[in-house]
């Protein structure tokens, strides 16, 4: 018996409703197909999938179309069919696109923002919602924004409702300031960030904050002539300084939460008293479920460095702190589950091929777009960046900083070999420079990119490789985020720029199990131990080597067995002749 709209609970119910509807047969077929295919890609059974907007949004969030060999166009068509079926059963509502342009109160406002795509597109869903609910511009207030948020969450499949709601007051207030006909009432800015659990710097004494800054200044630029015992000699990287500043604030916050007044924490020496040191580490040890935790270990190392280089504790006092820190569970020297899962995906030759030929596919699309007068410079940059990572596997900070004049050398002219050279000062270890010969196909793509893309952007082809539309060098975060999104969209795999190094090292050692030193040099590691961690447990490679040995052993035994079968024993020959003679003798009859 077909379900009514009021009794729809699962996607199975939606399928029954569509089947019993008065739609033309071809439409029923397309809607059923869309529901079943989407459910299959999500790994759920329609009869078990809850048919509510929040539940379906979470289900769709996990689907990567590329991982199922489905193109973006086909995926868009499947989603369109699913939404049509859900609207038919009143599980979701239409987003009412374009409705506000037909309303006299909203049309003039939209016409005023037509030239600003950021404002017009950013506010389109909100103003169409208001027009559909008969809310005029002058009636818009914080309550309307709240209703809009509830509607997005409960009655649409919009993938990121909170992002849209968070942007709406900001764009509305900007429009009210810039556009004369826009209502002047301001909306309250919305934030969905969780309340900060730890204290801010302002909650601590000025003397403590000054001591922290003095210590960090010492670590950022140590004085090589400092004659104090245990004075630091090597400067820390900016990222390490940032991490240590955060660690010290969190450590002090834990002490305050444990009952120590903030006024009593006046210097860094107050953090490295043995009992307080235990309190800090115990907190994070318990928070991690008493399991090995990299953050707790890193925070302990920060406090040990403070004790050694800044507080200048005696050897006995410092040794006591080290014994306390050593009680934390050791971090396993192996890949994280996330990296292991990624490497397992690239066990497939098909997935490896899709990754290795992704730069070619991106370049082909860029070339076709150029023929139509469009410049897809981000896709071109991703083709080059992925190609470099496949060939060399740079750290993300080195990749984003690549500069043609500073890092590349054409030893045989503009058509010959291309070398990549990164000075020791830019390497993580700071000890040795990194140099590599770029493969010829990657070199051709790099030269094409400089000649075809950078010149069209108006950027210096001899300058930074990865630049924005304003010809400013892209920061590491932007470049790596674009790489992650490109790979996820094309391959259906969540793969960061840094994880190329794991794939590169593992692939090489799979083919050359005993050549760890080459892998170490290729990845720019200071220690072979680090390389072994990067490329995962050797047990699978050992298993593969044993399988090859077993195969060779079986083949050898098989040949030996065949030779033995061909060479029958003499006793078998005698028995055969005796039986033949017995058959030839006449039988005796009584």
Describe this structure in words.
The chain is 58% helix and 2% strand. It has 26 helices and three strands. The protein is globular and about 80 Å long. It has helices spanning 11-20, 25-42, 53-61, 72-88, 107-112, 117-132, 142-155, 161-178, 206-220, 238-257, 274-287, 294-310, 315-325, 337-345, 349-356, 358-371, 377-391, 396-400, 404-407, 440-457, 476-491, 499-511, 516-523, 528-534, 539-566, 570-584; strands at residues 408-410, 418-422, 434-438. The protein is mostly helical. The chain folds into five domains: 5-88, no CATH class; 99-178; 201-325, no CATH class; 338-534, Intergrase catalytic core (hpI Integrase, Chain A, Orthogonal Bundle), CATH 1.10.443; 540-580. Strands 1-2-3 form a three-stranded antiparallel β-sheet. The model has no long low-confidence stretch (mean pLDDT 88).
Characteristics:
590 residues; 5 domains; globular; mainly alpha
Please describe the topology of this protein.
Blueprint (H helix, E strand, L loop, with lengths): L10 H10 L4 H18 L10 H9 L10 H17 L18 H6 L4 H16 L9 H14 L5 H18 L27 H15 L17 H20 L16 H14 L6 H17 L4 H11 L11 H9 L3 H8 L1 H14 L5 H15 L4 H5 L3 H4 E3 L7 E5 L11 E5 L1 H18 L18 H16 L7 H13 L4 H8 L4 H7 L4 H28 L3 H15 L6
Antiparallel strand pairs: 1-2, 2-3
Helix pairs in contact: 1-2, 2-4, 6-8, 7-8, 9-10, 10-11, 10-12, 11-12, 11-13, 12-13, 16-17, 17-20, 17-21, 22-23, 23-24
Short note summarizing the structure:
By secondary structure, the chain is mainly alpha-helical. 58% of the residues lie in helices and 2% in strands. The chain folds into five domains: 5-88, no CATH class; 99-178; 201-325, no CATH class; 338-534, hpI Integrase, Chain A (Orthogonal Bundle); 540-580.
């Amino acid at each position: 018996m077909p379900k009514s709209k009021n009794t729809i609970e699962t996607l199975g119910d939606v399928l029954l409703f569509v089947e019993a509807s008065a739609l033309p047969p071809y439409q029923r077929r397309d809607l059923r197909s869309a529901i079943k295919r989407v459910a299959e890609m999500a790994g759920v059974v329609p009869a078990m999938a809850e048919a509510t907007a929040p539940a379906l949004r979470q289900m769709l969030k996990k689907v990567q179309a590329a991982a199922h060999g489905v193109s973006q166009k086909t995926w868009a068509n499947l989603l369109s069919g699913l939404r049509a079926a859900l609207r038919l059963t009143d599980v979701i509502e239409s987003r009412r696109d374009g409705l506000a342009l037909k309303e006299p109160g909203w049309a003039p406002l939209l016409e005023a923002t037509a030239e600003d795509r950021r404002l017009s597109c950013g506010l389109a869903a909100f103003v169409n919602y208001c027009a559909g609910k008969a809310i005029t511009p002058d009636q818009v207030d914080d309550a309307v924004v709240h209703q809009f948020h509830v509607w997005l969450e409960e009655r649409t499949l919009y993938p990121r409702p909170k992002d849209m709601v968070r942007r709406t007051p900001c764009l509305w207030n900007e429009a009210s300031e810039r556009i004369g006909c826009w209502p002047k009432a301001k909306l309250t800015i919305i934030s969905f960030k969780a309340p900060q659990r730890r204290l801010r710097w302002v909650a601590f004494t000025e003397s403590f904050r000054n001591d922290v800054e003095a210590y960090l200044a010492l670590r950022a630029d140590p004085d090589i002539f400092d004659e104090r015992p245990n004075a630091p000699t090597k400067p820390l990287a900016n990222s390490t300084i940032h991490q240590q500043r955060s660690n010290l604030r969190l450590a002090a916050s834990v002490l305050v939460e444990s009952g120590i007044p903030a006024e009593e924490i006046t210097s860094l020496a107050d953090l490295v008293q043995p009992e307080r040191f235990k309190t800090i580490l115990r907190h994070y040890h318990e928070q991690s479920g008493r399991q090995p935790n990299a953050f707790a270990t890193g925070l302990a190392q920060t406090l040990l460095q403070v004790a050694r280089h800044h507080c200048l504790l005696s050897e006995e006092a410092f040794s006591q702190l080290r014994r306390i820190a050593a009680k934390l569970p050791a971090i396993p020297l192996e890949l994280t589950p996330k990296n292991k899962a990624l490497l397992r995906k690239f066990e497939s030759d098909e997935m490896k091929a899709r990754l290795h030929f992704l730069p070619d596919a991106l370049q082909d699309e860029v070339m076709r777009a150029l023929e139509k007068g469009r410049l897809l410079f981000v896709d071109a940059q991703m083709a080059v960046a992925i190609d470099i990572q496949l060939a060399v596997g740079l750290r993300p900070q080195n990749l984003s900083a690549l500069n043609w004049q500073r890092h590349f050398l054409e030893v045989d002219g503009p058509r010959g070999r291309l070398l990549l050279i990164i000075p020791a000062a830019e390497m993580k270890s700071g000890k040795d420079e990194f140099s590599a010969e770029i493969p010829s196909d990657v070199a051709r793509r790099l030269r094409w990119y400089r000649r075809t893309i950078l010149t069209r952007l108006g950027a210096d082809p001899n300058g930074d490789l990865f630049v924005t539309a304003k010809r400013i060098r892209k920061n590491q975060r932007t470049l790596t985020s674009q790489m992650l999104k490109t790979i996820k969209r094309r391959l259906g795999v969540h793969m960061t720029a840094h994880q190329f190094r794991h794939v590169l090292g593992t692939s090489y050692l799979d083919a050359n199990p005993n050549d760890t030193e080459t892998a170490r040099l290729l990845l720019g590691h200071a220690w072979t131990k680090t390389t072994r961690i990067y490329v995962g447990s050797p047990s699978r490679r050992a298993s593969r080597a044993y399988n090859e040995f077993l195969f060779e052993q079986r083949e050898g035994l098989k040949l030996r067995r065949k030779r033995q079968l061909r060479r029958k024993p003499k006793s078998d020959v005698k028995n055969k002749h005796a039986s033949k003679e017995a058959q030839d003798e006449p039988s005796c009859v009584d």
